[in-house]
Design brief:
The complex is a heterodimer of chains A (113) and B (116). By secondary structure, chain A is an all-beta fold. In chain A, 0% of the residues lie in helices and 51% in strands. In chain A, strands 2, 4, 5, 9, 10 and 11 form a six-stranded mixed sheet that branches. Chain B has 116 residues and is mainly β. The chains are: A mainly beta (113), B mainly beta (116).
Chain lengths: 113, 116
């Protein structure tokens, strides 16, 4: 059972556009929601993360919007660049228990020059 | 900071042989390390979690006798794929976490295993 659902599977935007990637979860025990960026043949790199006590977090061109009541969170990339072309994974974890990361299925983003 | 390395980055081995992959935390002590497997264009699948000095905890469906994990120190974990077969060919990624109650996991660059 997929604990974190991610959409879309792929996304193509023009340079300067604002791609939005969405994730949804069911387990209300999750209390940490990171986003990872992965280039082909490389490991994932942590981009930005949010806790459920805030509705938005911004770091540079990357913004997470978090809707606790809807159990949804999304990643917005402002002024997207061709160098942002990568696969993006959302994830969720909880501090109790094993504290493992549950990953979404990934979104392959292509930014066209 | 928070750099995790993996070695080797690529390995090709013959069917029936064993392969060892190392995962090191370079600038922090990793109380917990995780091993993931990733097939092309798919998400990361957690294989096992290991705490320093303890036996690894394997996810359902992962053969612990085939994928041997050792976490002998706070900076090193190894994954040994025993009696490798072509279906074991995959991208193996480790990650490390500094404390039991911290959230962040830092990922290594991955190891591409090809079994011929």
């Amino acid at each position: 059972q997929q604990q974190v659902k991610q959409s879309p599977q792929s996304l193509i935007v023009q340079k300067g556009g604002i791609p939005i990637i969405n994730c949804a979860y069911e387990n209300t025990a999750f209390d940490y929601f990171p986003w990872y960026q992965q280039f082909p043949g490389k490991g994932p790199a942590l981009l930005i993360a949010i806790r459920p006590d805030v509705s938005e977090k911004k770091e540079g061109r990357f913004t997470i919007s978090f809707n606790k009541s809807a159990k949804q969170f999304s990643l917005h990339i402002m002024d997207s660049q061709p160098g942002d072309s990568a696969t993006y994974f959302c994830a969720a974890s909880m501090r109790t228990g094993a504290n493992n990361l549950f990953f979404g299925t990934g979104t392959r983003l292509t930014v066209i020059p | 900071g928070a750099v995790v390395s993996q070695h080797p980055s690529r390995v090709i081995c013959k069917s029936g042989t064993s392969v060892k992959i190392e995962c090191r935390s370079l600038d922090f002590q990793a109380t917990t390390m995780f091993w993931y497997r990733q097939f092309p264009k798919q998400s990361l699948m957690l294989m096992a979690t290991s705490n320093e000095g303890s036996k690894a905890t394997y996810e359902q469906g992962v053969e612990k006798d085939k994928f041997l994990i050792n976490h002998a120190s706070l900076t090193l974990s190894t994954l040994t794929v025993t009696s490798a077969h072509p279906e074991d060919s995959s991208f193996y990624i480790c990650s490390a976490r500094e404390g039991q109650k911290t959230y962040e996991q830092y990922f290594g660059p991955g190891t591409r295993l090809t079994v011929t």
